Amino acid sequence: MGTNRSAMLEPFDALRQGLPPLDPSAVSSAASCALPARYEAVRSARQFTRRTLADWDVPERFDDICLVVSELVTNALRHGLPAQTPPGQEPPVRLHLMRWASRAVCAVRDPSFESPVAGDAGEDFAAESGRGLFLVESFSDSWGWHPLAGTLSGKVVWALFRL
């Protein structure tokens, strides 16, 4: 799992389209990591998020952001990947974290163009799946998604947090 600050800006224009007006030049911090197509990547994403938020000294939304990252990465792995990833291909899922003075955004990129679909959380509270986007909506201040354009294919699903 590698961190790459410059790769963070690559999908930023597509990501920015669905966000409230946030000046990209005002981003105070950004971090990104590639995640392999394995469910163990959810744990790695949480650890990366914890380290990054600790470095940024963002204690007030720490638990909310870590929970949402877990849900977005799980959804990307479960619903956003092709049946097989060709050997030697770049990991298909990437986590991006950005911080402005009063806001933070987590975004997960995957190769699928399929729209994320929220399940009906009211149907079965005992179910172990189907509530991911309901949790994202409940714990973030806003969320959305956009297809990527240009040399990037797939989509990015993001969540915004007021700090």
Taken from the alpha-carbon principal axes, the silhouette is globular
SSE string, helices as H and strands as E: HHEHHEEHEE
User: Helix share of residues?
Assistant: 25-40%
**Order of adjacent strands in the largest pleated sheet:** 1-2-3-5-4
Summarize the structure.
This protein is α+β, with helices and mostly antiparallel strands. It has helices spanning 5-9, 12-17, 40-56, 62-79, 132-139; strands spanning 29-35, 93-99, 103-110, 142-147, 155-162.
How would you describe what is shown here?
There is one protein chain. This protein has 163 residues and is an alpha+beta fold. Helix content is 33%, strand content 22%. It has five helices and five strands. It has helices at 5-9, 12-17, 40-56, 62-79, 132-139; strands spanning 29-35, 93-99, 103-110, 142-147, 155-162. A five-stranded antiparallel β-sheet has the order 1-2-3-5-4. α3 (40-56) packs antiparallel against α4 (62-79) and α4 packs antiparallel against α5. The protein is globular and about 40 Å long. It starts with a helix and ends with a strand.
